[in-house]
Please model this.
Amino acid sequence: MIPRVLWKLWFLLNFLVTLLLLYPAFLILLSRERWFGYAFSLMRFWSKCLCYVAGIFPLVKYEIDPDQIPSPCVFVSNHSSYLDILLIYICIPKYFVCVGKQELDKAPLFRIFFKRMNILVNRKSNVDSHRAYLQAGEKINKGQSIFIFPEATISSNGTLIPFKNGAFKLAIDKQVPIVPLVFPDNWKLLQNGGFLTAHGKPGITKAFILKEVETKGMTIGDLIPLREKLKNIIEEILNKNR
Model:
């Protein structure tokens, strides 16, 4: 237990110190929408620093050339750890907008990323969910990709939770492809749960960026089959990498 706690304390210290150092730059870059691309690049740099200094080394496997990832698109992935958020910025080189839960707006310092550059949603409110959906659609209309965790919460042991419909409805409505990502190991390194009891350690973490799934010609009647197809694709990779 002691090594686990010491590593988590080191990770937390690393997070806070680097955030405070980079905060002025983020504050400036997030003050104008035309600078969001630079803020995104800084976020990618920060994510790499957090992982490498903590001894977490991503092993990314691409089914498609990262420079050939379609844009705009809807990215989806499993969600088993807070590390997932860092990994998506490391794995995806092109600018995207992330949809996150409303609770992030209450996090000191960290809230600026989601309140300004990304989209926050209160999934318990139908009105707010619809607002976030329309906002995501507007981003796609501008040529910006959207990232959504379709489980809408973090699982504790890497097992998939049933997917919500939003990401797949959005992709069908906008006729854009869906690019699945899979993180089979993140929960083993930084598990969601008690600070003293949940997993926490350095190591290598695999990440898979899979070939896009097209939605052209699909209608709302294809929503459930599309959702289950993506879930099965992600689950297959998870099962192969237990």
Summary: The helical segments are 2-29, 36-53, 83-91, 111-117, 126-141, 166-174, 186-189, 223-240.
